[in-house]
Every structure is written in structure tokens, then in C-alpha cells.
Amino acid sequence: MPNATFAAADLTSFCRLDQLGLVVTGQRVTPQGAVLECRVVVADDWCRRCGCQGRPRDTVTRELAHEPFGRRPTTLVVRLRRYRCVECGHVWRQDMTAAAEPRARLSRRAMRWALEAIVCQHLSVARVAEALAVAWDTANDAILAEGRRVLIDDPARFDGVKVLGVDEHCWRHTRAGDKFVTVIIDLTPVREGTGSARLLDMVAGRSKKMFKTWLAARPHVWRNRIETVAMDGFTGFKTAAAEELPDAVAVMDPFHVVRLAGEAVDKCRQRVQQATTGHRGRRGDPLYRARRTLLTGADLLTDKQAARLETLFRDAEHVQVEAAWGIYQRLVQAYRVKDKKLGRHLLAGVIDSIAAGVPPGLVEITKLGRTLKNRVADVLRYFDRPGTSNGPTEALNGRLEHLRGSALGFRNLTHYIARCLLEAGGFRPQLHPQIG
């Protein structure tokens, strides 16, 4: 950089303490970290009671964890001057609310750095606490408080929502207690092609009442803007949406329709496996070896997979599996057709054919046909509203599973909901406008 202009070295500006109203007066560097001695720039020597000027009395210190530089924790030792009023005798210390909250252990810059580390870099709370040289509880409380204040409690984050996705999510795998929550997703950016889905909220439980209560708590104007609600086959979500969002259109999205069909194929395979071999699938069993191949789209099969299915279907005992597989492939192909009118026609034909009647032995396909026939209007509405899918909702569920794994599980649902919102609430552009 031959043409660059350099100013004099300034530790205060380098550590961004000028934003906190502090100035560095000394430093001490150790292998464990760096300690910066600071003072407040503003004198603040006027009495808060009577308004008279005070006289300096003594000095007190306050230690704050600051944002780390490199891999070295940074601690601020702030010297605060105390004053005594010459008129009323009131004693006070210099105001440093620009640098930190009252009784806080972290500076405002440290809280901002910790929040960015959680939201943007997806670090764990343990890693953040280590970088700040504070206890885990101290870092966790500060992150959640700052996240709620800056991001979660911002009412503007609900603006612009037109397409909702709703699904259930298992937040803990324990024997006791309620394991499921209802997740509400903003799918508007996905449908409009402007971004990815984001988590709006999580509600304890997975019932009609929970979703209905959440919708009722939203402003009337906001509910009137909702155009579409994507959901699975659970009728409780559909009923709640119909009661609270009468103008919105319910769509049973392709992800769950295909998954229902895939589950029917899998259960048929398991039943035939048990009936023909007398035991559950084992490594050498043809049906067990083909369990994943059966759920692969026909146009995506490799030569090896196609040969495996051809060999599998030669056996007369596997005819029911072949029939279930054929229906599954027809359903998948209907969604993959580029012409939406043709896709709608093909899917309607599949639903009519399996609802009208299938061989008595195919109990799984009979159940699938009954389910799709009851929700046929919701299923076919997808072709009028392309891009309305709960697939992004399931992708967010995967991110939340990763969050729970990195934290080694959660015991407090309130903390879990807050961490999930920070993880998947779409706040990255708000913290860093230059990234998406």
C-alpha cells in the first residue's frame, strides 16, 4: 500500500473504546490476555440532586470483559472518579452507561461481539465465554439479553410476512416431559425468490390450540396480510389457520405429500419383508438392501440402482412393493413436471386412482389415498402457488438439530427458543448488512 496514509498509533481507536466514551491510559499484556486501563472521557462533575458542581473525592475501579483481539481475551479496568456536592453533600460516580449496562460484566462492544459470534459465525456459548474470559452463565445471560433487546423484541421483524409455514419440531429426546414445539416460519422470501426462509417463532406444544393462540395474538392488520399457509397433513393446523386467517389459503406442501407417499412405500416394504422372511430386514435381504433405492426418483437412478430394482421386482412375492413404488414415482413425477397445469392434472389423476380403489392387500396405499382425498384441494393448490413448500421449514429443523447437538442439549425451553431465533431468525443481514 505505497499510497496509504497512516495516522499515529492510537490504542483507544484500535480497540474501539472511543465508541464507549473511554480512553486508554495504560496496558498490561500477559500470556493469558490483555488488560487495558481506561478512564471516562466526560468529567460528569455536576450534582444530580441540586445541580451544583462537585469536588473530586476519590477513585473506584470497575472491570469489564471487552471484545477479544486475535485469540487473546481483553479486560478493561475502568477508573471512575467519585464526586461530592459542595452544597448538599451528595456523592456520585462518573456515568459510564455508554460503555456498559449497570452491574454488567461485559462492555457493550463485548456484548455486540458475542451476539455476532452466535448469529453470524454460529459459535457455541462455551467458545464465546472462553474468548471473553468469563463464566458460561455470564456469557449466556448477556447474549440472550442483548439478542432479545436488539433482535427478538423488535416488532419490525414480523413485517412483510405473506406466506407462513407451520410444522412440529422435537426439541429434546427424553422420556419425561413435552418433547415437541410448533415452529412458525416465514416462507415469503422463498416464494418471491429474494432469500431463504427464516424462523418467526416457536410455541410449546403441537396442537390446534397452540397455533390458534399464537395467531390470535398477532395484530389484525398483520393477519389480514397473510396469503398462504403451508403445512403438513395435521388437521389441527388447518383448522386453526381457517379460524384465525379466513382469507389465507391452506396448502399441503409437496415435501409432506411426498414424505407420506414415501412412508407408505417403506411400510409396505417392511410388511412384505416380515411376511416373506419372518423377520425384520437384515443386511443380505433384497428388500432391506433396496430400502433407499425405492425412495429415489426414477429419473435419478444409477445403472446399478436400476438393475437392483429390476432384480427385486422379478420376484412375484414383491409385487405389492412394486405397485406401491409405481404410485410413489407417479406422484413424484407430477411435482417435477415444469408445466404446472400438466403437473396438477397428473397429481389429480394419481389421487383419484388410489382413492377409487387399490388391491385389498395394499393397506398402506389405501390409507394414503384416503388422506390425500380428504385434503385434495389443499394438495392441488400448490400448483397455483409455486414455491409454497415446507421443505425450507424442514431445512431449518435440521439447523436447529445441529444447534442442539453443539450445545449438548437444552433443559430450558425458553432459552432454547431464544437461541433458535438467534440461529435461524434471519438476523445476519441486520448485524452485518454486507452479508446475506
- Please indicate the count of domains: 3
Number of strands: 10
What structural class should be given to the helix and strand makeup?
A: alpha/beta
Oligomer: single chain
Q: Helix segment count?
A: 18
Roughly what percent helix?
40-55%
Rg to the nearest angstrom?
A: 30 Å
Gap from first CA to last CA: 30 Å
Order of helices and strands: HEEEEEHHHEEHEHHEHEHHHHHHHHHH
User: How big a fraction of the residues is strand?
Assistant: 15-25%
Mean pLDDT: 90
Sheet with most strands: 5 strands, mixed
Low-pLDDT runs: none
Described by the principal axes of the CA atoms, the overall outline is elongated
Features:
elongated; 10 strands; Nucleotidyltransferase, domain 5; alpha/beta; 436 residues; 3 domains; five-stranded mixed β-sheet
